Amino acid sequence: MDTQSTQSSLVGTHIREASAHIDDVKVEVRPGYHLDKIKWFLRVTKGQRSVQVEDHFPDLQLFHDHVRMYMKMERYGAPAFNDRETYRLKKILVKIRSQFESSD
């Protein structure tokens, strides 16, 4: 057996093993807040003072995590939020984090 046929048979073995493991992978699907809902929230609450995020997003931790995720995704493509939205969201996230710290 030559070197090339040995390499191709090894590659074939690894591919079969990898495809056998794909069925074993379980993906955890978490409910979340979609970008459209967050943008809607920003439009509806624009100019309001003392906005209660909990009225729109009951799970503050989930809201916090999803906003952070969308903000980080901006590094890899088109921005999810404009500059004003980003500024407002950062202020909201600071308040949410302070609530988390005070509840601990």
Structure description:
This protein has 104 residues and is mainly alpha-helical. The chain has a domain at 35-102. Helices cover 66% and strands 0% of the residues. It has 5 helices and no strands. The longest helix is centred in the last third of the chain and has 21 residues, at 83-103.
Ends distance: 66 Å
Largest sheet: none
Compute the average pLDDT: 80
Number of helices: 5
Categorize the overall geometry: globular
Strand content: under 5%
Rg over CA atoms: 23 Å
Q: Tell me how many strands there are.
A: 0
Secondary structure elements and their pairing?
Layout: H1 3-22, H2 35-44, H3 53-56, H4 60-73, H5 83-103
List the defining traits of the structure above.
globular; single chain; 104 residues; mainly alpha
